[in-house]
C-alpha cells in the first residue's frame, strides 16, 4: 500500500463524496474530455455511493482507522486526506469516469484513465508532491507526475489517474484527455448515452469498435472462419445499484449475429433438467450450465481442418466428435457442500442421451485405469484429483441413473441418489435455486452455509446472505442479498468487511 497514491485517490474518488449527485449526460465536461477511441467508459455516481455507504460511519470503523494510522506513518498528507477527503483537492460533487483504451496495433497494451474534477488545485498538488516517488513534468497546460506504470495528470479543471500494463510511454494517451474537443469526444456517441444516462450508482458501456481495428484480431477471426466485419458495432450496457438489502447488477448484450453465430452453437437456450432433488440442503454453492454438444459438432463441421484434427486425436481411443455429441445431452450440475471440499459428495451430475453409447466411454475409462467397475450402474474413480486443491477423490463413485451420470464421494449422498434423490428437509429449498433452470448459465451461493466450512467463523456477524447469477444470450444478472432488507447493501458490506478485519486481527480466522 505504501506510496500507492493512484489507488488511494481512486478509493477516495469512489467512496468519499459529500455534495449532491449530478446525473451523467452529454453536457458533462469530464465526459467530453474522454477521447472517442476508448473501448469502455464507466460512470460513477459518487455522491449516491457515499450516502449509501454512510461514510461517516465507515470512517470510524476499525479497519479504516487502521488504514489511516498506517498511511500516516509514511505519508502524513495522504493520511490527513483519508480523514478529510476534501483535502484531496478533488471536486467531490461531480461524477467520476473511468475509461479503458485498447491499442489496436499493440493488443497487449491497455491504458486505464480515471478522471475527476478539480476543486482546489493547490491542495491536489500538495497531495501529489507528498509522494516522493512521483517525477513531475509540465506539458502544455497540464502537469504530469509519473511513477512506473502509474501517473497523475492535472490542470485547474480535471485530474486524471492513469494506469497501464506496459512499459510504453503513456503520455500520448494522457494528452488526449486534456486536448479532446466535442468533435473527437466519446460523449457524442449515441450508444454511450443509452448506456450511462440512466440513474444508476455505476453504469458502464463497452464497444468492440476499437478491437475491430486490430490487424491481429482480424487475422484470428479469419483463421476461425468468422467474418472480420462482425466485430464492429457490438455493445454491452451494464449497471450496478446498491439497494436496501441487495446489490443488483445487470448487463445487456447488443452483439452482431455473425459474431455470435458460432458462440451460440456452444450452448442450448436453457437447462431443461430439474436437478433440485439431487442437491442436499447443506449445499453452499450450486451451478448449472447448458452445453450443446450437437452444436459443437455443427460448429466444427464448418471448419473441416479442425474437425479432422480432433477426430484424429480421438481415433486412437476408437472415438469421434460425433460419438461425444450423440452420447451427452449437455445439462450439467456442479455443487459443493458446507465442508468446503470441492470433491464433495454428489458434486457433479450431467445428462446422457444414449446410455448404450455411454458404455463405450466407460469401457475405455476402465481400460485406462480411470474407473473400476463395481456393477452395471456403479464405478469407483481411481487416480483422480479435483481441480481445486489437487485433492484425491478418495472413495468417489460414478453412478448411472435416470439417464444421468453422478459423481460423489459420500456414501449417504450416493445412497440418496440411488433411491431417487433427497426428500423433505434434506433437499435444498427450491426457492434458493429457482433461477437455475431456463438459463444457459446460472448459479447460487449461500454464505451462511459457506462460513460453516471456515474455521472460526461460526460467530462471525457478517451481513451477507446469498448470491445469485444468470446468463443468457442477450443479458446477464447478478444479485447479492444481505440479511437486513432495511439497510443499504453497501453499508452492510463495509460492516462485514470490518467484522472480518476484527476477526482476523483477533486470530479467530
SSE blueprint:
Blueprint: H1 5-15, H2 29-32, E1 40-44, H3 46-53, H4 55-59, H5 62-74, H6 76-83, E2 96-102, E3 110-117, H7 121-129, E4 135-139, E5 142-147, E6 150-154, E7 158-164, H8 171-179, H9 190-196, E8 202-207, H10 209-212, H11 215-223, E9 235-243, E10 246-254, H12 257-265, E11 283-290, H13 293-301, H14 304-315, H15 321-327, E12 328-337, E13 348-352, H16 355-367, E14 371-375, E15 378-381, E16 397-401, E17 404-408, H17 411-418, E18 441-446, H18 447-451, E19 464-471, E20 475-482, H19 489-505
Can you give a write-up of this model?
With 509 residues, the chain is α+β, with helices and mostly antiparallel strands. The chain folds into 3 domains: 5-60 and 69-201, no CATH class; 234-267 and 441-509, no CATH class; 268-439, no CATH class. It is 33% helix and 26% strand. The protein is built from 19 helices and 20 strands. The protein has a 20-stranded antiparallel beta sheet, sandwiched between helices. Strand 2 and strand 3 (110-117) form a beta hairpin. Helix 5 runs antiparallel to helix 6 (76-83). It is globular, with a radius of gyration of 27 Å. Residues 1-27, 340-345 and 385-392 have low confidence and may be disordered.
Amino acid at each position: 500500500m505504501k506510496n500507492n497514491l493512484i489507488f488511494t485517490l481512486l478509493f477516495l474518488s469512489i467512496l468519499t463524496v459529500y455534495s449532491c449527485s449530478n446525473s451523467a449526460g452529454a453536457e458533462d465536461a469530464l465526459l467530453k474530455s474522454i477521447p472517442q477511441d476508448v473501448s469502455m467508459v464507466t460512470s460513477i455516481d459518487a455522491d449516491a455511493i457515499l450516502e449509501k455507504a454512510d461514510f461517516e460511519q465507515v470512517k470510524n470503523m476499525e479497519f479504516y482507522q487502521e488504514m489511516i494510522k498506517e498511511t500516516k506513518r509514511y505519508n502524513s498528507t495522504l493520511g490527513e486526506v483519508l480523514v478529510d477527503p476534501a483535502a484531496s483537492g478533488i471536486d467531490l460533487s461531480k461524477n467520476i469516469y473511468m475509461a479503458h483504451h485498447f491499442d489496436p496495433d499493440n493488443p497487449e497494451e491497455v491504458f486505464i484513465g480515471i478522471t475527476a474534477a478539480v476543486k482546489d488545485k493547490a491542495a491536489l498538488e500538495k497531495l501529489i508532491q507528498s509522494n516522493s516517488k512521483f517525477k513531475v513534468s509540465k506539458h502544455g497546460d497540464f502537469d504530469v507526475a509519473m511513477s512506473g506504470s502509474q501517473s497523475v495528470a492535472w490542470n485547474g479543471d480535471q485530474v486524471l489517474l492513469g494506469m497501464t500494463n506496459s512499459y510504453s510511454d503513456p503520455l500520448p494517451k494522457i494528452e488526449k484527455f486534456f486536448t479532446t474537443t466535442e468533435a473527437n469526444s466519446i460523449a457524442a456517441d449515441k450508444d454511450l448515452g443509452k448506456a450511462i444516462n440512466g440513474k444508476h450508482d455505476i453504469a458502464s458501456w463497452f464497444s468492440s469498435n476499437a478491437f475491430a481495428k486490430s490487424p491481429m484480431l482480424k487475422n484470428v477471426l479469419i483463421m476461425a472462419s468468422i467474418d472480420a466485419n462482425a466485430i464492429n458495432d457490438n455493445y454491452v450496457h451494464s449497471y450496478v445499484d446498491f439497494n436496501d438489502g441487495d446489490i443488483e447488477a445487470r448487463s445487456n448484450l447488443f452483439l452482431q449475429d455473425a459474431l455470435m453465430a458460432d458462440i451460440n452453437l456452444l450452448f442450448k437456450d436453457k437447462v431443461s433438467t430439474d436437478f433440485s432433488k439431487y442437491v442436499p440442503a447443506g449445499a453452499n454453492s450450486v451451478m448449472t450450465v447448458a452445453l450443446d454438444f450437437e452444436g459443437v459438432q455443427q460448429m466444427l463441421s464448418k471448419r473441416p481442418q479442425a474437425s479432422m484434427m480432433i477426430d484424429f486425436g480421438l481415433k486412437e481411443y476408437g472415438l469421434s466428435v460425433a460419438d461425444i455429441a450423440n452420447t451427452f445431452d449437455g445439462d450439467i450440475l456442479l455443487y459443493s457442500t458446507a465442508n468446503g471440499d470441492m470433491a464433495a459428495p454428489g458434486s457433479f451430475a450431467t445428462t446422457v442421451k444414449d446410455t448404450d453409447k455411454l458404455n463405450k466411454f466407460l469401457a475405455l475409462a476402465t481400460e485406462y485405469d480411470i474407473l473400476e467397475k463395481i456393477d452395471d450402474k456403479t464405478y469407483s474413480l481411481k487416480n483422480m484429483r479435483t481441480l481445486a486443491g489437487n485433492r484425491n477423490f478418495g472413495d468417489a463413485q460414478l453412478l448411472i441413473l435416470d439417464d444421468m451420470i453422478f459423481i460423489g464421494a459420500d456414501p449417504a449422498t450416493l445412497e440418496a441418489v440411488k433411491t431417487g434423490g433427497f426428500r423433505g428437509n434434506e433437499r435444498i429449498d427450491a426457492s434458493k435455486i429457482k433461477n437455475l433452470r431456463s438459463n444457459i448459465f446460472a448459479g447460487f451461493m449461500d454464505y451462511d452455509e459457506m462460513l460453516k466450512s471456515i474455521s472460526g467463523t461460526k460467530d462471525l456477524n457478517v451481513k451477507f446472505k446469498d448470491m445469485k447469477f444468470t446468463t443468457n444470450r442477450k443479458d446477464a444478472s447478478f444479485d447479492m442479498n444481505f440479511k437486513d432488507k432495511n439497510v443499504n447493501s453497501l453499508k452492510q458490506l463495509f460492516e462485514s468487511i470490518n467484522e472480518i478485519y476484527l476477526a482476523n486481527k483477533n486470530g479467530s480466522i
